[in-house]
Batch of 2 targets.
Target 1
Amino acid sequence: MSSGEGAGYGFRRRRDDTVSGTYLGMPAFPRAATAATRDRQLRANLTHATHTIRDKRARAVAELPDWARLRAAGAAIKDRTLRHLDGYLEQLEAAVTAAGGQVHWAEDAEAANRIVTELVLATGEREVVKVKSMATQEIGLNAALERAGVRAYETDLAELIVQLGDDLPSHILVPAIHRNRREIRDIFRERMADWGRPAPEGLSDRPADLAEAARLHLRQKFLDAKVAVSGANFMVAETGTMVVVESEGNGRMCLTLPETLISVVGIEKVVPGWRDLEVFLQLLPRSSTAERMNPYTSMWTGTTDDDGPRAFHLVLLDNGRTDTLADTVGRQALRCIRCSACLNVCPVYERAGGHAYGSAYPGPIGAILTPQLRGVGSELDASLPYASSLCGACYEVCPVAIDIPEVLVHLRERVVEGGEVAENGRRVRLRPARGHAAERAAMRAARWTLDHPGVLRAGQRLAGRMRGLQPRRLPGPGRAWTASRDLPPLPAEPFREWWRRTRGERRETGR
Ligand code: SF4
């Protein structure tokens, strides 16, 4: 049993998932996180893993004296590209087509799943190998393929562990971060035979033995596969080149051995040229795996005679990205290069784990990306902007300087105020999320009071005189807040009166 599953929230992948959500049925973040924080094994696994990665990242970044300038360059390139995204995407499409590839445009998850499924079925194959891909996790591709009778084999080690365990990823870079070695050994022993070559007899929990078991299990899959599905870290518009960076070599096998390659990539992954790519190939490895250079960087441009896949299909995925682009504050989330540095420093992620975020994107980036891609119409998605203490550690480490706290506050405003958002090209009226009516009323009262200084002054004086009656705990909805905090005592004298008395300033006019 998974540590997370022990919490009783059904983190196992549901067989009846719809195409849009392999995380269907997840409760709002606070409830899922409460359960996760009670799981000691999960917390121990997360604390150990995140602290190890974050320390290594800090050392790798400190080696570069121009890191701050690289970071600023990364942010500027992404912003410029997003401003002219339509032009770069058309340039990319023309270059991919000229190189022998075929480009498909997918407005949403359903369209992307339909396109990929039809492409696979057209080959006559019923099995595909997969390179780790956040985009295909986002759209629930494996479940969609399964419904069409196609079996997708994950080949990244951590994704393999998640798949064999009938589990869900909980980290962008290390999807099985919530598992420890003993749990992985048990999953391999119990489930590998259901998916192909069984685990070796007497498999131990030594990392080298586990890696060898995975290597033997996967090797036959690579050699047999006729179709591969991948994502891409970057797409170079000027030449139509796809780029995948990885550490295990499984990506290289999937990208070169099969006859057909289908890549599902979010439209924000485009970069204008090779000079731009150079910046990200420095930012990404140090931020994600704390390496100076990632072990495998695979690049391909369309198809090539006598080498690599004979057919290449690029599925460009929107699925809420255009709507996100329309939000001048929230669009910075589209700069993300999925390094996961923000997860590893987040005190909330460290305690709650990744499943509580209810999407393929956990941690701080998930808290700002998911509510924009999916909207804040559900209880879960409306709760995500609150999954943060706003400490700002995520912003400090982000290699493309996404001001995550700023976007979180912006999205909280959207949740509280209701209002309209763009969804799938339409203006959608938001219902204020449940539980936020009192907060909204309190904010309106505060705004009115601050707009009327005379009322504010009278209220402060009255509060000062009645301070002896101040309760130690707030009643009603405020009770939860004061259950773990001291209510600050009211001062005997309001600040304005103290200022006037000590500084001898003239009485305020109340303007
Ligand atoms: S938001 Fe920044 S730190 Fe977090 S995954 Fe994206 S690029 Fe990395």
Target 2
Amino acid sequence: MENEFRKWFGEKRGRKAAEVFKEKGWTAYYTETLEEARELLFASCLPPNVSVGLGGSETLKAMNILAELRTEKYRLYDRYNCPDHFEVCRDSLMADYFITGANALTMRGEMVNLDCSGSRVAAMAYGPRHIIVVAGVNKLVDTLDEAITRVRSIAPMNCRRNGHKTSCAETGICAEKLGLDCNIPDRMCNQLLITFNAQKFAGKYHLILVNEDIGF
Ligand code: SF4
């Protein structure tokens, strides 16, 4: 059951964070529900007849946008249905729009993401003409230090989700926190991107903040 104080807290932080991200050059929105976010995405953020790349994301999965993106309205670089994942991720770097979740967002308007291959953070940094980030308020933290702590602490879940053969995918605890090495091909924590500001290219970065706990 939804907790009214949690909803209140999420709304206060979500609305405030959207304002701060706007000051940093983002086109930022706040929505109460993921369904509203979905409607906003297709009605106002993503025009038809564009190419679209995707970042791997539990939030986008929960948003249920894949079937719509696979229609003739869009040219989807479909990372979930392709003969060569590496090549699709490369093609996605030149998409008109790249839609993704985020690992952490700060109340100061910074975004932090941690990747294995770097295909998602590469697209977030440069390449696609537009980036659309969808994130639940559970991704909001106060400081950059907390954001980096957050992205490291959720990595075991990403390892498990993606079938990576790491010790953390079994134990739920980062090997490095136990003083062990994680120097293996399946290591998740390879590429860290901090997006401090979105002023460089006006209109490029979009954020939809949702007052729900989505993904992890
Ligand atoms: S460094 Fe290795 S063990 Fe630690 S969270 Fe990342 S993938 Fe898991």
